[in-house]
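Q: Here's a chain of 794 amino acids. Please give me its 3D structure as tokens.
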Amino acid sequence: MLRLKLRLILKNKQTRLILLLTLSVSLIISVIGLLSYSGYRKGLDTELNTPNIELLQINLDVTNRAFRESDNKALDAAYSRDVEAFARLQTDEKSLSNNASVIERLQKYLKALSSHEEIHSAEVISFENHALVSSEYGYLPDWDQAPDTTWVPWIRDIQRKPLLIKRRWYGTNHENGTVELLSLARPVVKDGQVIGAVLVDLDYDRFFSKLYIHLSNSQYVYDLEGELIYPKLKSSVPLNEMDRVLKELDVSPYAYVEVGGMEYMANQTFSDVTGWRLVSLVPMDKLLKHVKLARNMMLWLAFISILAGCSAVYYYNYAAFRPMKRINSLLNSGYKGTRQGGLYDLEPVIGKLVVEFHRKSLVVERSLPELRSKYIEDVIQRRMGIQEMRMKWEQYFSDWDGSSLAVMIVSIDRYSTWAASFPEEDKMLLKYALNNILLEWLEPHWKAVSAPDEQSGFVVLLQFSEGEDGATTRTGADTDVDAKESVLLRKSADRLIQVVGEHLPLTISIGIGHIFSDIYEARQSFVKGREALGLRLYEGYGRSHMSTDSMGEGAHVSSAAGNRNVEIIRAIESQEAGASIKLISQWGEELRLHRTSPMQVYLSVHELMEELLKWCMTHSVTPPDQLVDYHWNQILTLDLPDMEKQLFSIVADIGEKLAGHRQSKEFVRVQEMMDYMEHHLHLNIGLQEIADQVHMSVSSVSSMFKEETGSTVYDYLTGLRVKKACALLCETHLKIAEIADQVGYRNENSFIRVFRKHKQVTPGKFREINRCSNGYADPPKGRHFGNLEDKFED
């Protein structure tokens, strides 16, 4: 019951409006409260954090200054001659008596050093003999006899560290110590070896009495090993929780931490002299007390507004359920004392309606038009099997009936020229407008779905609507129905062409495939429609074509087209005025006379375009713009007159550039090389002889010849020799060795190897094959060479 009520409540517009306003107001209140609190916290960071960091910096400067003064004294002592002499002094009686004056001067020096009010005492320690001199108790030959030995466990660390700073007690252990000290040690070095140490002991209490301590915060000092240096008394924050505070701070200048249920602002700074870390903790409870109260009040106000909105929704919808409650009471009126379904019996009925509505909504939400368009594209391109095709057809086209189907191909005429006249954004908008016009014009009479067809148009799947304009569902008289539907479809296509021409700056041609009933036949209908659209080649732009229209024969076009392409290229090379254009004009007249299959014509022109482009690249002629940007779709949307104009323009452009190229110095030089090679084939010439003939270097000849002809000098010369050898083999009775000599090979085996590499047979076999084909000799028995003669044509 609750689920049913929620469904009905959420579907009501006024209810949704109340909920939206309630949530919006509560969200605005919450955001204001949180932003105010955040703003105050940021301001607090600025106002409070800066003074605390400055206070820490002041204390850091105080400690650094004191340590620098003591460290300078320790360094002076470490480099003193008496200190160095004592560190190397032997402990036998003779050495002591001879150096008594050194020990006496050193003790006076240490007493003078410790006379500073912050320095408690000073010692010089010898590592070689374990002796020491102290300002407190003088000379001792063994440091274990000293009244103060708490420095012994760590003093040898000075051998790997240039400075040691330790907190310790004066005495033999921590429990019995009397005075707390901060000891600063510096090494005594002789010849790169640490032989002793100077230990300066600072009075702990005097040293830290100079720190500035704020009443509301707690300050801590830690050394490099993380041991607590200051304070030595109990603080407001438990020391066992300070390790967690240090981890949260890491290397940040400040952070907010929680210790013992209270929030603190922690600040820290580091000393570059001692390596100490100075940390300050400031309690935040008093500072944030009123701000937190204001924030909490704002959040409670937001919660109260949500409750008020929900109450309004409940009260507003209370009346909506009165009829249902009345139905419930009527259903249960005759069954007192028993629990009946009543209103619950309505839920399955309502649930079924809701599920049906939800299913239809899902179809809309899944972008059915886009799915249908993608489906048509996949069917045309054969990207799915029959089972998947029919399953998706039933799923996406459940509202289509069993009427006939047809495929219509809409193509923009002169697409390349049209596309070049508009920027990309305008071109996309015009295509979008064309698609909308197609669907809107066809919609009253046909069910239509469109999909992109390459770049130049659309492919449209159509179904004849029952009872409109005489279109009917297919019955036993399929032929009559197909004829009637074809006539209606042709009329709609002609009218569509006219409408597009009136509203858009373009013209279209339409190809219509045959009528079919099974979606599996859509691909065949598309192919027939594409063939029908090809009639644009002969009949011009802005027309519709059915698959039943005449397509032409074109039986012998492939070989003839290949020969014609060769003739056109030879005409361009001959530089005969108008020869290539005349050939193209003759070709156009033949096409109009015989109406050759359009697809074969397009294929022939496509091959010619590619051959022209390849020829330009091979002969170092800059191709025309039409060839540089050439693609297959560029000619598919042209009629025959426009195709001829394009070919005229291309061959004329190539002819002009070729004429200019042949006047160049490089072309003339290459022709001289070719003439020299052709007239001196009988000599054993090479690249050096050719270079000498044209008075150029070998590298220049090689690069120039390659750039102009696309071939190397060696390959061209070898081709000439093999061609001349073929002629001599067929026309003379000379021996193979004699022919090899006449084409520049002094070694018969070298000639046979080169000839077989180019012709795939030996010279003798080549002569035998060609004489048999020319009738000069009987064919050899038991050998079949098929069409090998085609392979040896030059």
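Q: Can you summarize the key feature?
A: The radius of gyration is 52 Å.
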